[in-house]
Amino acid sequence: MKNIKFNSIFLGVLTMVSFMMSSCDPLLDDYETDFGKGPILAQFNSQNTTANFIQDGTTQTYDVAISIIGGDNQPINRPVEVTISADPSSTATAGTEFNLTTTSFTIPAGQLSTNAQIEVLTANLDPFDAKTLVLKIDTSSEGVSESNLTSIKLQGVCELDLSGFVGVYSSVNTRFAAPLVSTVELGPVPNSLLITNTDGYGDDEVVVLLSTDVTNPTMTYISEENQAYLYDNSTYGWVWATTLTPEQSTYNSCDYSLNLEYKRCVSIGCFGGSRVITMTKQ
């Protein structure tokens, strides 16, 4: 009798579990997620950027990329119509620093992006008081991303005059509480500068090569090949400044300021970390 009773209970429980699982299937089906069919949204490719323009009095066209995201992250078979405007938070003024002559743009079918264009009035840019244009995506024939703003700093720059960098500088090195006094001379090769005392040794030297494109004012370090050294390490020998990436060291062709960031290297490799120095001409 005990075996019969146990078997009956077991069969009853098994039947109930089977019923519950089968009755849950429709519920589970209702919550299936299709990860390939989300909304298609329009947004700017970059939320913040600085655009440099030579103050030569011309009107320059500047491209601002707009893309679609979402769905399966593939182009779609229909065009996407997008409208934009200048946001009231802009400090740049239409007709003074920029013109937005067209506000409607189309991302073609089969494409993921297009460029909006603004006109930049270079004669009115102030290199020492750069204004910012904030663009906003107002509408899209698909959808608009929550990240629907892009901020563009309209930076005026001057023609490159290498001799203007020569002189005495106040250098803020993150290693020291007080600024260092550095000097800048014309370097040993064209478009280069020789900089002394950026690292606090008094006679340490760095040679930088300036990009001739003032709208992309980057610098690379050519210290080792020009025998410019920071100091003599008792274990590893001479230490010199080396480029991390050109974008991490920049110059300003209007006020002649310099922003340095370099690694310290020796013959067998480089030390960890980097030196960061902000130089202001006195």
Description:
- This protein is mainly beta and 282 residues long.
- The chain has 2 domains: 40-157, hypothetical protein (bacova_03559) (Immunoglobulin-like, Sandwich), CATH 2.60.40.1740; 162-281, Beta Barrel (Lipocalin).
- The chain is 10% helix and 44% strand.
- The chain contains 1 helix and 20 strands.
- It has one helix spanning 2-30; strands at residues 40-44, 48-54, 59-70, 80-86, 98-99, 104-107, 113-121, 131-140, 149-157, 167-173, 180-186, 192-196, 205-210, 219-221, 231-233, 237-243, 250-251, 258-266, 269-270, 275-281.
- Strands 10, 11, 12, 13, 14, 15, 16, 17, 18, 19 and 20 form an 11-stranded antiparallel sheet that branches.
- Strand 11 (180-186) and strand 12 form a beta hairpin.
- The longest helix has 29 residues, at 2-30.
- It is elongated, with a radius of gyration of 30 Å.
- Residues 1-22 form the signal peptide.
- Keywords: Signal.
What is this structure, in a nutshell?
The protein is mostly beta strands and 282 residues long.
Topology diagram in text:
Layout (H helix, E strand, L loop, with lengths): L1 H29 L9 E5 L3 E7 L4 E12 L9 E7 L11 E2 L4 E4 L5 E9 L9 E10 L8 E9 L9 E7 L6 E7 L5 E5 L8 E6 L8 E3 L9 E3 L3 E7 L6 E2 L6 E9 L2 E2 L4 E7 L1
Write down the domain tally.
2
- Alpha-carbon distance between the two ends: 105 Å
CATH topology of the largest domain: Lipocalin
What is the CATH C level class of the largest domain, in words? Mainly Beta
Kindly estimate the percentage of residues that lie in beta strands according to DSSP: 35-45%
**Number of distinct beta strands:** 20
Unreliable stretches covering 5 or more consecutive residues: 1-11, 13-17, 19-35
* H/E topology pattern: HEEEEEEEEEEEEEEEEEEEE
Structural class: mainly beta
How many helices in DSSP terms?
A: 1
Kindly state the percentage of residues in helix: 10-25%
Largest sheet: 11 strands, antiparallel
Give the averaged pLDDT, no decimals: 90
Envelope shape: elongated
Instruction: Return the CATH architecture of the largest domain.
Output: Beta Barrel
Rg over CA atoms, rounded to whole Å, is 30 Å
